[in-house]
Design goal:
Blueprint: E1 6-9, E2 12-16, E3 27-30, H1 33-41, H2 48-65, H3 71-86, H4 93-108, H5 114-143, E4 152-155, H6 170-179, E5 185-189, H7 196-207, E6 212-215, H8 220-225, E7 231-234, E8 238-240, E9 245-248, H9 251-260, E10 265-268, E11 274-275, H10 292-295, E12 296-297, E13 300-301, E14 314-317, E15 324-327, E16 330-332, H11 336-345
Parallel strand pairs: 4-5, 4-7, 5-6, 7-10, 8-11, 10-15
Antiparallel strand pairs: 1-2, 2-3, 8-9, 9-14, 12-13, 15-16
Bound molecules: 5-S-methyl-1-O-phosphono-5-thio-D-ribulose.
């Protein structure tokens, strides 16, 4: 339905430049790791699953640039690449899972030649790409059952095709519901400071012909109170073992509001966004970004250039505010700690 957000082509990683949407559709072509790491940091590619897939291609990029023949030098080169990518953004755990899976290739196969390891890395990066496509469609199929005819769903940030390879998590639920012929609408929070909701979600949903209404973040309470909203669907950047969920700043406010208004609050996230090594939300690192993102937008100043700013990119929604998780293994309801472990840590 959508062109891939991130893919490998002709020896380079290609990305839709999300900082220029919706007004321009341009590509960033990353022929070296530095360009890719910068693209992740600058949010040219963003969204937890897309960052993970990009990181896999990043290791592939580093591997293809290695011209030597010795395994020790190759392993050191790959370690440096992984270190560089790991420093790009701290919150989305998909990035770190992918780097761990990639590292397991070179630490787990000391007998491989450089050429063999290069092939294994290429195959792994391609598999991660394809897996994300499949998993998003499975989440969509599980989640669409939560959309009833005539419902208006609320979402924040962009958890769509642009945040994954090509389908989305929360927005994937909407695409699957639409494919089933359901009639529903979406309210999209603009998502200050960088407006991923206004710029990206509205663009995506309009292209997919899903009726969408844009609201400022501060309008969510009034929309819920008016009785317009039937459910909230968000993505996630990292889910701790107890179900506490880091997602775009503003998500926690929506969860508190949804609880107050007795509206179900669903998090749509693949297994690769769960971090069972972090027991609760207090252990999730929260990225803080530049003050200028809050002082204005795209170079246009709103506040004084000296205004003191706090700019966390994410917040943590406590598990008790979450009605259910939609994952590729089905819809998981409380008690979350037990049920998440059972559903996601087993095989199958
Ligand atoms: O800062 P961003 O744009 O990378 O933040 C993205 C989000 O918070 C998304 O909701 C999350 O990554 C899930 S995307 C499927």
């Amino acid at each position: 339905m959508f062109k891939p957000t991130v893919y490998w082509s002709q020896g380079a990683v290609k990305l839709i430049d999300q900082t220029r949407l919706p007004h321009r559709t341009t590509m960033v072509i990353c022929r070296d790791l530095k360009t890719l790491a910068t693209a992740i940091r600058r949010l040219q590619v963003r969204g937890a699953p897309a960052i993970g897939v990009a990181a896999g291609f990043g290791i592939q990029l580093a591997s293809t640039r290695f011209k030597g023949s010795g395994r020790r030098a190759f392993d050191r080169h790959l370690e440096r690449a992984a270190y560089h990518l790991a420093a790009s953004r701290p919150t989305a755990v998909n990035l770190f899972h992918v780097l761990d899976e990639m590292k397991a290739l070179w630490t787990g196969a000391p007998e491989f030649s450089v050429a063999q390891l290069k092939r294994a890395i290429q195959a792994k990066a391609a598999a991660l790409y394809e897996e994300n496509r499949q998993v998003c469609r499975r989440m969509g199929d599980h989640g669409e059952r939560l959309i009833s005819d005539g419902m208006t769903a609320l979402t924040i940030c962009n958890a769509g095709a642009l945040a994954t390879v090509d389908y989305g998590t929360a927005l994937g639920v909407f695409y699957s519901a639409k494919a089933k012929g359901k009639r529903f609408e979406v309210f999209a929070c603009e998502t200050r400071p960088l407006l991923q909701g206004a710029r990206l979600t509205v663009w995506e949903l309009e292209r997919a012909k899903v009726p969408v209404t844009l609201i400022c973040d501060s309008m969510a309470a009034a929309a819920m109170r008016s009785g317009k909203i039937g459910a909230v669907f968000t993505g996630a950047d990292r889910v701790a073992a107890n179900g506490d969920t880091a997602n775009k700043i503003g998500t926690y406010s929506l969860a508190v509001l949804a609880k107050y208004h007795k509206i179900p609050f669903y998090v749509v996230a693949p297994r690769s966004t769960f971090d069972f090594r972090t027991s609760s939300g207090s252990g999730i690192p929260i990225e803080e970004r530049s003050a200028d993102e809050v002082r204005g937008f795209q170079g246009a100043a709103a506040a004084s250039a000296r205004a003191r700013v706090w700019n966390p990119a994410f917040d943590v929604t406590p598990a008790r505010l979450i009605t259910a998780f939609v994952t590729e293994r089905g819809v998981i309801v409380p008690p979350l700690k037990k049920n998440l472990k059972r559903a996601l840590c087993g095989h199958g």
